[in-house]
Amino acid sequence: MDEILKAQMEAAEKRWLGGWKLGPQRTRWTSTPLQVGDAAPSFTFPDATGRTVALDSFWKDRSALLLFWRHFGCSCGIDRSRRLREEHPHYLALGANVVIIGQGEPERATAYAVRYGLPPTPILCDTEARAFEAYGLLEGRPSQILFDAPEALLDRDLQAGLDFMASRREEGRPLVDSPWLLPGEFVIDVAGKVVLAYRYNYCEDFPDPRVLYAALRHAGKEDPHPNPSPAWRERPTGLLREGEG
Question: Less packed terminus of the chain by CB within 10 Å, N or C?
Answer without folding.
Answer: C
